[in-house]
Amino acid sequence: MLRLTRPLLNAVKRTTGITGLSVHPNPLPELVKTYKSTLGVLANLPETSVYRQGVEALTRHKLSVVESANGDVAAVELKLNEGQIEEALDVASDELSLASKMLEWKAWEPLEEKPEPGQWEYAGQQTTVSSS
Length: 132
Hints:
- The structure is a single chain.
- The protein has five helices and two strands, in the order H-H-H-H-H-E-E.
- The protein is mainly alpha-helical.
- It has a two-stranded antiparallel sheet.
């Protein structure tokens, strides 16, 4: 009897092997929820925001990967190429947090104060700041 249950015991993921990152009991629905929440926050940013455009495209792609996997965690891990599914969930949570902060900071608005001369000069190359 013990021999029959041992393969089942080994099939259940018990650890991620990453300190501080525990195994999520049902990661795919949580990942879908996080991606949809991120898209909801991004919808509040202006459509012209470069941050919104980039993150929205990436998040939509990742959401389609998860939804098309039909519950296959291994396929999602392979297609997302972000390590274990718990790592992908961690990245998604961080992106949701950052999107909320970008909305709070209104990063798309022009600078309140004119930058000091040379502030936008890196390695001898001058960059410009738009004030639109």
